[in-house]
Amino acid sequence: MKRHKVLEDNKSEFFLEPIPRWITHFGFGLMVAIFLAILTFTAVVNHPRTIIMEVTVSPDSVIAEADFDVFQQITQGQKVAIRSPFSDLPIEGKAEVQKAWGNANKIYIPIEVNQQLIQNMPIRNKLLCKGEVILYDASLLEKIIKF
Hints:
By secondary structure, the chain is of the alpha+beta class. The N and C termini lie far apart (76 Å). The chain folds into 2 domains: 2-44; 49-146, Beta Barrel (Elongation Factor Tu (Ef-tu), domain 3). It contains 6 helices and 6 strands.
């Protein structure tokens, strides 16, 4: 009996009384709010997508050959980057797209790039390679400005 009495004397009031219900509801609500905020952030902030396709780089132009499903994802003036197997740095530019082109299986998309970057690449006539085309979606700030 004496030992049991000592244990009860040493217990704090926190363990004797249950946690109030409003604290557990608040904690659960906070967890749900944080989860929804993370989902909203990932839906709003778009990450660049990398698509491997045929890219023709010549001293005067860059043309990417895209499938129709890729073409549907590209918007006029969308920022794109091309990474060829021969260089580590991507060539950044803007895609020139007209939705009237979308009647074929393969679409050739001219990409407007800085000519100095192309001139620095070792190209004689044309370079046709399996390159990566990185599609940058508009940032949240650009979407707000356009709206």
